[in-house]
């Protein structure tokens, strides 16, 4: 999986507090610690208490294996220690308008997306230097809606969700599109124009898990682009409210975080049988 680092669960949403599954025996409830971004940037412990907080307004991030936190903001990327010391940074310094994501790569460099007149993926080394520049094809000039959670895959390619293109595109390191998964399929239902892909994760079985924001659903596509599993608001009694974050856990369950759930339940974990 490419959305999980160390032992913290990462889901992009605006406000998330304690998270557990209520079952008959509360002592057996599933609990997780996790990193949350948005209006609150924090690590929430299994007891539901924020045990680390940082500057809010973040968009993407990871708890790194060394315990540091990598965070993307609209204009910069920062790696900070638990003592909030800055150890790495990259600032938007081009003709582009926004940064959409950040991921620490296996070689120690950092993947960043820039949105705007020249949408692109950048690989930044530890000195803050650009060592790779991959052009993107989002099919829109709306910088804010060009893309979000891009991830490098194990084969070296990049998985990039393009909201207004209704497509998840896999790019080679040279910028060639090698596969497209469409999200505006009739079988997915929902109002026209709402199944925007926000987060896309390549699973170990080769399938792709994607959250479809305004469509209020999370979908798993096989390698041919067919829907093999989905969970919608009909399955969770309307709890999805613009789900931007999604992740498949090691236990097989799927966690979904709702961007618009500013109050109430913001994160839901469902089993494969929903």
Oligomer class: single chain
Mean pLDDT: 88
Strand arrangement across the biggest beta sheet: 1-2-3-4
Helix content: under 10%
Number of E-type strands: 23
Main sheet attributes: strand count, strand direction, barrel closure: 4 strands, mixed
Order of helices and strands: EEEEEEEEEEEEEEEEEEEEEEE
Percentage of residues in strands = 35-45%
Euclidean distance between termini CA atoms: 20 Å
Radius of gyration: 18 Å
Q: What are the segments in which pLDDT stays under 50 over at least 5 consecutive residues?
A: 1-9, 12-24
| Derived structural class | mainly beta
Number of helices: 0
Global geometry: globular
3D architecture notes:
The protein is an all-beta fold and 274 residues long. 0% of the residues lie in helices and 42% in strands. The strands form six sheets. Strands 1-2-3-4 form a four-stranded mixed β-sheet, with no helix packed on it. The relative contact order is 0.13.
Short description:
The protein has 274 residues and is an all-beta fold.
Question: How would you describe this structure in keywords?
Answer:
274 residues; mainly beta; disordered N terminus; single chain; 0% helix; 23 strands
């Amino acid at each position: 999986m490419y959305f999980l680092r160390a032992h913290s669960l990462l889901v992009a949403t605006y406000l998330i507090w304690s998270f557990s599954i209520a079952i008959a025996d509360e002592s057996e409830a599933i609990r997780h610690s996790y990193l949350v971004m948005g209006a609150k940037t924090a690590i929430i412990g299994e007891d539901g208490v924020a045990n680390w907080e940082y500057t809010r307004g973040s968009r993407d991030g990871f708890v790194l294996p060394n315990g540091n936190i990598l965070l993307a903001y609209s204009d910069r990327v920062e790696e900070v220690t638990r003592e909030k010391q800055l150890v790495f940074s990259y600032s938007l310094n081009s003709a582009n308008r926004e940064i959409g994501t950040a991921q620490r790569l296996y070689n120690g460099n950092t993947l960043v997306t820039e949105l705007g007149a020249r949408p692109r993926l950048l690989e930044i080394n530890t000195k803050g230097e650009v060592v790779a520049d991959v052009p993107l094809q989002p099919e829109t000039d709306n910088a804010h809606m060009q893309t979000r959670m891009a991830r490098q895959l194990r084969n070296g390619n990049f998985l990039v969700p393009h909201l207004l293109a209704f497509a998840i595109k896999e790019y080679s390191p040279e910028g060639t599109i090698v596969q497209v998964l469409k999200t505006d399929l009739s079988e997915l239902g929902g109002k026209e124009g709402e199944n925007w892909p926000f987060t896309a994760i390549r699973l170990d079985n080769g399938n792709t898990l994607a959250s479809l924001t305004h469509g209020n659903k999370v979908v798993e596509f096989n390698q041919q682009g067919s829907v093999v599993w989905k969970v919608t608001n009909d399955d969770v009694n309307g709890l999805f409210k613009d789900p931007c974050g999604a992740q498949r856990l090691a236990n097989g369950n799927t966690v979904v975080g709702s961007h618009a759930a500013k109050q109430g339940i913001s994160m839901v974990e469902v089993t494969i049988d929903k």
